[in-house]
Amino acid sequence: MADAPRKADRADRIDSSVPHSARIWDYWTGGKDCYEVDREAGERIRAVFPDIVTLARVGRHFIGRTVRYLVEEAGIRQFLDIGTGLPTVDNTHEVAQRAAPESRIVYVDNDPLVLAHANALLTSDPQGATDYIEADVEDPETILRQAARTLDFDRPVAVMLMGILAHVADYDEAVSIVRRLVEALPSGSYLAVRDGTDTDPRYVKGLADYNRSGAVPYRPRSPEQVAGFLDGLELVEPGVVSCPLWRPEAQGAGATEFSPLYGGVGRKP
Predict the structure, then answer these.
(1) What are the alphabetically sorted keywords of the record (predicted)?
(2) Which of 14, 52, 137, 184 is most buried by its number of CB atoms within 10 A?
């Protein structure tokens, strides 16, 4: 595992007076790693957009489906999961190593609370490996350099950007970050992206209320902008769509429901 601050240092860096997206997401999905300020922010959004809890679960199911596709159909055995969030059920390494125990996964986040729980993300199958990097999505060069301690960038890697690019204020900068990550990958690698869109006015209003709370803003973009992150890649069918419609499974949550979360997967030629 990457060098990390002592537990006391981590605790000092966790600000429980300001809501945080990872902790709010944890609250919506039934977790306990959140504070009153996070629960209050989560309830304010739910008052405007009551489907937010379902949306959070839809997002988790999308991650599971993409990882299963990448392992079982695309043959991927290496994952770089940026913007990890708090550990929950069916984290990337659990889904991947269930199908292919030799899979290697590197998680990346800049939230000290996620770092404090990183051991839950490092319970690798002995045939594979997991690591955790404390870094910011806006510094892809550092992420790639540190990830190379665990991942072999001469072999295909799947980069997971789930709900993180909307935290990058400038769209062109977000696109640049994606391009710099993809440029470092060999042919046959994959990019999986999921983010909130501006397709539901209630969702947009709920996020506007959230952004006024003092937390790091989350900016929904158009479906076309989300699709733009995958430009130049070979899109996996059905392309960039509302997440419940991406390769739905019989047991998936909300398989026939529209969602303002959009996502897709692309292969680097």
Answers:
(1) Methyltransferase, Transferase
(2) 52
